[in-house]
Write a structure and sequence with these properties.
The structure is a single chain. This protein is of the alpha+beta class and 383 residues long. The protein is built from 6 helices and 17 strands. The strands form 4 sheets. The protein has a 6-stranded mixed β-sheet, with helices on one face. Strand 13 and strand 14 (308-309) form a beta hairpin. The protein is globular and about 70 Å long. The protein starts with 53 loop residues before the first strand and ends in a 17-residue tail after the last helix.
Length: 383
């Protein structure tokens, strides 16, 4: 048996104001996310912990444990919900997989578990947090019906979600005198039990800028701006060969801008997606084509993608080497069927990229939309 250290990260409870609804309105929405998040609010990731588990260590010299930024290849032999069959993870949960350690995707608790392992090691029956936070009894409140106000109670029943001020909760019991409302996520405290082997660890990307010899590296980087970065990130998450994604701000003139600053249009940045990929699985050509397919006719619009307008939504392809530049320019030219209409998608050398706030990262996956490789469901950027 091997004791895996429990790591507990404090979770701060907060709810986005955009979720405020009438007490008369029942929402049927199951979230597979790390708490409630919205573009205008943030939530820290939930607690991570592992229980005692059995390990099998091969007869080989163990060099080191993984470090942040390492590219890990691992095999999930088993990934099962513990005592709760209502969990449907929106990411791949079996077979040989890859991630950038503490670089997003999957669950923070899975990253935490892998960070404790050696290359070639197998851990069985490890318990990891499912990403919905620990259950907090203080978030269960009793509301006297005398304080409910003028509400048609026939429209409210067990399971109805209500908004009181800045707090959203779910009705869990009702009497003539009081209602009990629970503001915990419906799956708070849920856990997975996993069997996993850390197959290999490799040094991650060290230079994220323009490096001509990038073409000789095993893993490469690409950067795209496709309007609001949520939908574009999920599209790239789904592409086989993409190992990691981050959303952030690039091509601007201010150091470490905030989302609010970028939205003013005064920093010069655009919302962008940075992708780490394996060129033996997916080509840069295919990555660019995916971006252009998502843009469609928006390539002819200046500072606009869909209904999103402003310099922070300008679209572009930001190359990390000259090979990428040539591919991008050719594909963009091939995409033009307008008969001479000017293309507004910019192709420029990548500038500094600033990773966006945590609540923006893998936003749609956290909201329950599938990030599984090859998934074909329509991507919904706003709900």
């Amino acid at each position: 048996m091997r004791l895996i250290t429990h790591v507990i990260i404090a979770i701060e409870f907060c709810l986005a104001t955009a979720w405020h609804i009438s007490p008369l309105h029942k929402i049927h929405r199951w979230h597979l996310l790390v708490g409630y998040i919205h573009k205008s609010s943030s939530l820290f990731l939930s607690s991570e912990h592992n229980e005692c588990s059995e390990t099998e260590t091969p007869n080989k010299t163990l060099v080191r444990k993984p470090e942040d930024g390492d590219i890990l290849t691992f095999t999930l032999h088993r990934f099962e919900a513990r005592n709760n069959e209502e969990i449907y993870p929106p990411f791949d949960t079996s077979g040989r997989l890859q991630l950038v350690l503490n670089g997003g995707h999957y669950l923070p608790s899975l990253h935490s578990l892998l960070s404790t392992m050696h290359e070639g090691e197998t851990v069985t029956s490890a318990t990891i947090d499912a990403g919905f936070g620990s259950y907090n009894p203080d978030l269960k409140i009793t509301i006297p019906t005398s304080q409910i106000g003028d509400v048609d109670t026939s429209l409210v029943k067990i399971g109805t979600r209500l908004a009181f001020g800045e707090t959203e909760c779910r009705i869990v019991s009702m009497t003539d005198d009081e209602w009990v409302c629970d503001a915990n996520h419906v799956l708070a405290g849920a856990e997975y039990e996993v069997d996993v082997t850390l197959e290999s660890l490799e040094e991650g990307i060290k230079n994220w800028g323009f490096v001509e010899d990038n073409i000789n590296r095993k893993y490469r980087v690409a950067t795209f701006a496709l309007g609001c970065f949520w939908g574009g990130e999920l599209a790239y998450q789904r592409m086989p060969g993409v190992i990691s994604t981050h959303v952030g701000y690039t091509q601007g003139n201010v150091t470490n801008p905030t989302y609010e600053e970028v939205c003013t249009g005064k920093t010069g940045h655009t919302e962008a997606i940075r992708v780490v990929y394996d060129p033996t699985v997916v080509t840069y050509h295919n990555l660019v084509q995916l971006g252009l397919d998502r843009l469609g006719d928006n390539i002819y619009k200046l500072n606009q993608v869909g209904n999103d307008r402003g310099t922070q939504y300008r679209h572009g392809i930001y190359y990390h080497n000259n090979e990428q530049k040539d591919i991008a320019l050719k594909l963009l030219a091939d995409q033009d069927i307008s008969g001479g209409k000017e293309i507004m998608t910019e192709v420029k050398q990548v500038a500094d990229f600033y990773v966006a706030e945590g609540y923006h990262q893998q936003y749609l996956m956290k909201g329950g939309q599938s990030a599984k490789k090859g998934a074909g469901e329509t991507i919904r950027c706003y709900g």
